[in-house]
Amino acid sequence: MDLVTIEGKWAFNYTYFAGESASRFFHELRENQRIMGTRCTKCKRLLVPARAYCDTCMAPTDEWKEVGPEGTLETFTIITTAFPGLPAPPIVMAYVTLDGADTALINLVHGLDLSDIEAAAQKLNTLPRVRVKFVDEPKGRITDFSFELI
Amino acid sequence: MVNVDGVYIEGAAIELSWADSRRNLMELIYDTVSKAVDDAGQGYDGIDSVVLAAQDLVDGRSLSSMVTAPAAGAYLRDEVRYSDDGAGAFAAAVARIEAGESERTIVAAWGRASEHDVEELSRSLFDRIFMAPLGLEELHVSALNAQRWRIDGGDDGAAAAAQARRGAAARANPRALHAGGRRSTPAYPLRDEHLPLWADAVAAVVISGKPSGVKLRGMGLSSEPYWLGDRGLAQAPALRRAAERALAEAKLDVGDIDLFEIDGMTLYDEAIALEAIGLAPKGQGMRALAENPRCNPSGGSAAGYGVPAMGLARIVEATLQLQGRAGTIQQGKPRTALASGLSVTAAQTHTVIILEAA
């Protein structure tokens, strides 16, 4: 007796509302090529990416402030699988605390020779300084920028 | 704080399998829940509720508990579905017994990795606005944490020995997945052997307020911030808090605990968790995993991994150890055990359960 398997696929469409804070964050990326954070009214940390509230303090944010464009790498991984819209692997994904920010921001790190993964990792292990690099035509998305080693 | 004195585990069961086309998901659930009820030895008499840990995306069925809950014994009973890890569902079931809402409860959790693309599903869990466009997966977060742990001076020299020990434990575990399963592609610094063995997992227990084989001594739950960049990388502060709460409730020190069943997706996650619960000093979690046979004698994620069942799986393994029924991986006669579970979205929520041989 053949045991039956049934193929299945979910393909629902959604339209996600980014909200005012995220929209302004993306607007700043596209129009001014700068990364913005918002300050928690309670703990006073500058949270990046900008957001409407601090979920640690459950308090609203108020002040908007530009961070970076330089910062310090906090940790990284090197990914060897492909993902649509991203460069061909291997790619470096890292958390970076931009100057002036109190939280880390994740994105790709470009400009590193990845022909020798271990050698690249040793370089990143030193927690190097990095700089934000914008794409030529920002679209107001998180993929508008990446980091490069200084 | 909930007073959890007086809740007992009557019966427990777990099954790890892979792509068994002879049984559909509901039949897998039915089999393991039936074993847990049989293990409790009183049939369905007095069981008035079921608390389930299951997720629609994992199950590939919207409102999946409509389909699956009856297989877990929900017919004409109060049913609650907890869309998080199985250890959290266990805690919710305990709270209901303590509140007098239930007297005897089935807790069940499952995840069938062979029915879906684990990586695709993982990417779908992340925030759609800031993180999903970067293709983030659960495993990438584990890799980021592992690398931060290494940067902070974690004793990575013990990784090979830790992996060898947990691999041997998984091979010896009669309940582990011994054929089939699959592994994802590792992201640096992780390697194949550090990764979970994806499996079809079902775990179930029967709990009540009547004295039985294993007694609950304490439990604690805690959550990380949503934003990954806000978290203490490689420190697991929410797990630390959950363990502190559970130990305080149990009136025990971590040094009093005889056995640990810790949930972590990768070898490094397990090592970091041992530091967070206070068993190992900072940077020494891998060494503890390598040298302490009381840490994850089941083999942890190497024995088979199917979210969101893993927290309850750890509770089942700890229960069997406390009852001297763990078989070839039995670790003497432990009196106390600590089990933990974490949520699938980058370990945002943690549950710690402390059990005692009754």
From TrEMBL, chain A:
Signal peptide: none annotated. Residues 30-57 form the ChsH2 rubredoxin-like zinc ribbon domain. It comes from the Bacteria. Residues 64-109 form the ChsH2 C-terminal OB-fold domain. It comes from Sphingomonas chungangi. PANTHER family: BLR3430 PROTEIN (PTHR34075), DUF35 DOMAIN-CONTAINING PROTEIN (PTHR34075:SF4). InterPro entries: ChsH2_C, ChsH2_Znr, NA-bd_OB-fold, Thioester_dehydratase-like. This is OB-fold domain-containing protein. Gene3D superfamilies: 6.10.30.10.
UniProtKB/TrEMBL annotation, chain B:
Residues 236-354 form the Thiolase C-terminal domain. Residues 162-179 have a biased composition (Low complexity). InterPro entries: Thiolase-like (IPR016039), Thiolase_C_2 (IPR055140). Residues 162-187 are annotated as: Disordered. GO terms for molecular function: acyltransferase activity. This is Thiolase C-terminal domain-containing protein.
